[in-house]
Amino acid sequence: xxxxxSKWCEVKAPPPRTLNVQKFAESRASELxxxxxxxxxxxxxxxxSMRNKRRRTTGHDDRVLxxxxxxxxxxxxxxxxxxxxxxxxxxxxxxxxxxxxxxRKNAISGYSTSGDGTKRLRTHLWHAKRFTMTxxxxxxxxxxxxxxxxxxxxxxxxLKSGALVHDASYFGAVQLEGPEDSLLSILSxxxxxxxxxxxxxxxxxxxxxxxxxxxxxxxxxxxxxPICPLTYxxxxxxxxxxENHNTYGYDKRSSRQVWVWMHPSAFNEGYDALKFxxxxxxxxxxxxxxxxxxxxxxxxxxxxxLKSSQLLQKILHPVTSSEGNPWQxxxxxxxxDGNGSQLKKSSIFENEEHMFSHAIIPLIVNDPRTLPGxxxxxxxxxxxxxxxxxxxxxxxxxxxxACNGINPPVEExxxxxxxxxxxxxSFCLVDSNPGSLQTLPMKGFSRVCPILLLxxxxxxxxxxxxxxxxxxxxxxxxxxxxxxxxAHAIGLREKRWIACDVGLPCFPSDFPDCSAYSFFKATEDLxxxxxxxxxxxxxxxxxxxxxxxxxxxxxxxxxxxxxxxSSSPCLQGxxx
Length: 576
Prior knowledge:
The structure is a single chain. The chain is globular, with a radius of gyration of 32 Å. 35% of the residues lie in helices and 17% in strands. The chain has 576 residues and is of the alpha+beta class. The chain contains 20 helices and 19 strands. Strand 3 (131-136) and strand 4 (139-145) form a beta hairpin. The longest helix has 19 residues, at 267-285. The strands form 4 sheets. The protein has a 7-stranded mixed beta sheet, sandwiched between helices. It has a 6-stranded antiparallel beta sheet with strand order 7-8-9-10-6-11, covered by helices on one side. Strands 1-2-4-3 form a 4-stranded mixed beta sheet. Mean pLDDT is 75; it is low at 1-7, 78-87, 239-250, 326-346, 375-394 and 569-576.
């Protein structure tokens, strides 16, 4: 503090890190005695708490436990020696504590299940506190926000002026692995429209630049019932064969991989149909095609709305982009100088207008929880340059899933401790226990995550939607970051409102020719009937006993097609 202009400024020493309570009390003994005398005079030397302000606490009292033990001992359930061991038994833990510990876990794969086997999403705890939950398709899914009005107009308003996020981790993925010609043959027998090897869009599909959408059917049936709509992605193949290569330079005999995403209501039926088609192909050609499920390893988040691109630009900070990216993505590198390392501005979405409507962008991004609030802020070396980021620069999500090399994100306690150390360093304070951060578990965790960013933009409507495919252990880290950056979470009910508003079908409610539709409607009818039976007979709503006659329409079309074929033999000869 400056005393005068002629004197030097005196700098105060920082406060001591530790404090000896005994010495402090001895030096302030007179002040403490005066304070005690003042308080004693006000309460008239009666330091007991007032009776009307007392609160009874029986957590320390074991008489309730002993009473319960006496009742059980009379019935002959337990012995008297076991009464004192109930509190020490680790198995005797309340359901609330067990459920809390289970939901805190972040396993590499799989879902946590309830007592009846229903799966919980990784964001179940977040949704259960804010949404109406329902059991559907083997999952505990968020139906919609709580309340009477349900907020349909506000959701549509946010779609046109903000960003919405939906946890679509309940969608299941199936991997097909085998030669390229065998995979094309399998997909041609079960998909409508079939991917043609001579079409213009097949080059972008086979090269992994875009993804395809089609309707899945059963193989071997001439007029088969559709199963469900799906999305399929080809793994990029950089190896070019000298012989037996197709027109696009890819070796037909090389092993390729395809990921197929299906709705959970028809996942088992679609998985069986793909396995049956692969067996038929193997019996016909003798080549092996592996069909495996990745439902417990991959997850999907949907980001939609007018400001969805700005939201993704705030969260996705890529360490490096894949080689040969057609969108010419600039790497989000770290520029070192004398003052420190600063994070350059990413330009992932600068070429968004020139991208295809079904573009795929493979990225390896930093942990969104460790990123600074502003991009101009200085980034610590632990966040920006790690040996892990340099070792994973040539890998992607395909390679990580194939090699089982995906590590879960760093625990929240470690990140909080690192932030605490940074705050102490900013105040020129040194932690008295420097080994506390080193004792926390650091092995087996990662600070970077490989993802696939899919642009699902339909030119027929104004809906801008992005799909983020990522490992299932990273869902919670990205979800909290999306919410903290301003995204509005939606459930199944709001997602259907948006689909109706933009004019897109919603599976399975808008696909009456699929078997999943009939099961879904049957479940809804049982729920409505149970709800109606709880009311009085005079207050029950009118019930429509006739379901939609979709099967009758299908039979009439099939009958007309057979009559046309039998009446015109010339058309039969031409193959119509």
